[in-house]
Design goal:
This protein has helices at about 10-35, 45-60, 65-75, 85-90, 90-105, 110-115, 125-130, 135-150, 150-175, 205-210, 225-235, 260-270, 270-295, 295-310, 320-330, 335-350, 355-370, 375-385; strands at about 40-45, 195, 225, 240-245, 250, 390. By secondary structure, the protein is mostly helical. Strand 2, helix 10 (about 205-210) and strand 3 (about 225) form a beta-alpha-beta unit. The structure holds zinc ion (2 copies).
């Protein structure tokens, strides 16, 4: 035994492990994910090099491999080609064997060739990080034992090594497509695990990320928090980072009571948000009114079921779901009318052939129909829809 530089207490061990693993999570979410894989943020060379070094020391991750596997996940999401979909592989397999699934995919040269472009290829990448991947964690082990002693150093090191396989490969890739709430009806099964993204660097907001994969900020609701974005904001103030893309923000023009080119642009660029608003404000509002007026428990049950199906109906309805939905909607002509207005709206924006002008006309027509429906929440939504425009968010503001 030898004297280490520090003699940490067990409380210190917990705090040190938490701090060091937090730096690793931040490196993964800011450098590997937002910067390298999606190019939503650019980083100063100093910051990039720090993250690369830290990831090599604590995870032995090769940037090109991580980026390629992750981009393939987005491109093939929830199919048999998705490297780690719990829908295709089963939740327990992804949760407990996520790191192994990652390695299987990272070994495929065709995946690296197709999805691994644009990652670092400098001298240190070729000759150190990629060539001697395991040397990083070995050096980290030596440093931990030197600083914190053999037993405590080894414990801290083990936690560091297991942190990413557990939280990123297991929890985000598994639970993030299995359990939690959805702000957006994306084409995949992604979920926001928690509204406060702290422990896993903001990656908890996985549904938001799949809805707007190229946004540097993962939180979208006022009550959500993305700690990764918090650090990016600090780096921006220090002029060590610039943001390329953010979620396009829908804002309301007050007193604007007609559809124009800005309305069309806002809706086309932000269908997911418009539909989320429609579901929350109209579908859920009418559902609550109808439940309040329902005569029997049986009707209430059918309404509840209809609401659930309405939330799942877009963008990937299947024949069984539609049949079931029509059946449940017989319990409420009012909710049925809301459903038909939902379909009309989807049809307007699905028709890509529409010129800007005909789309304005069709949106106006939709609003007139909503105003004449006699359903107050639909009327209010029509007024809201006319006022939509995209906020002018300069990329590097
Ligand atoms: Zn995902
Ligand atoms: Zn991503």
């Amino acid at each position: 035994m030898f004297d280490s530089f520090f003699q940490p207490t067990w409380l210190d061990v917990c705090l040190i492990a938490l701090l060091l693993t937090h730096i690793t999570i931040v490196s993964v979410t800011i450098f590997l994910h937002r910067h390298q894989a999606h190019r939503s943020v650019e980083l100063h060379g100093l910051i990039s090099h720090f993250f690369r070094l830290w990831l090599w020391l604590t995870t032995a991750t090769v940037t090109r491999e991580w980026v390629a596997v992750h981009r393939k996940h987005h491109a093939r999401v929830e199919t048999s080609e998705d490297p780690h979909s719990p829908q295709a592989n089963g939740i327990f397999r992804v949760l407990f064997l996520g790191a192994w699934l990652y390695r299987l995919e990272a070994c495929k040269s065709e995946t690296l060739a197709q999805f691994g472009h644009g990652t670092p290829k400098d001298w240190i990448e070729e000759n150190i990080y990629t060539r001697f991947t395991l040397l990083g964690p070995v050096l980290m082990l030596v440093a931990n034992v030197t600083f914190f002693g053999t037993t405590k150093g080894l414990i801290i090191w083990s936690i560091q090594i297991l942190w990413i396989p557990l939280w990123a490969a297991g929890v985000i890739n598994g639970v993030g497509h299995f359990l939690g709430y959805r702000n957006f009806q994306t084409l995949d099964a992604s979920r926001n695990i928690l509204p406060w993204g702290i422990l896993i660097g903001g990656e908890e907001l996985h549904n938001n990320h799949h809805a707007y994969a190229s946004s540097a900020k993962l939180s979208v609701r006022p009550w959500e928090f993305d700690i990764g974005w918090f650090y990016i904001s600090i780096l921006r103030i220090l002029r060590l980072a610039t943001v390329n893309r953010m979620v396009p923000q829908l804002v309301q023009r007050t007193e604007h009571q007609y559809c124009d080119a800005d309305t069309v642009k806002a809706i086309i660029n932000n269908k997911i948000q418009v539909m989320a608003d429609f579901l929350k404000l109209v579908v859920d509002g009418v559902y609550r009114e109808e439940v309040g007026n329902a005569a029997t428990n049986k009707v209430r049950k059918r309404l509840k079921h209809a609401r659930e199906l309405l939330h799942r109906e877009w963008p990937t309805p299947d024949a069984d779901l539609l049949l079931n939905l029509e059946k449940q909607l017989e319990a409420s002509p009012k909710l049925n009318e809301v459903y038909s207005m939902k379909l009309r709206l989807q049809e307007i924006w699905s028709n890509n052939q529409s010129s800007g002008e005909s789309m304005i006309d069709r949106l106006e027509e939709w609003c007139t129909h909503a105003e004449e429906s006699g359903i107050q929440l639909l009327q209010e939504f029509a007024s809201r829809l006319k006022g939509y425009r995209l906020a002018n968010v300069p990329a590097n503001s």
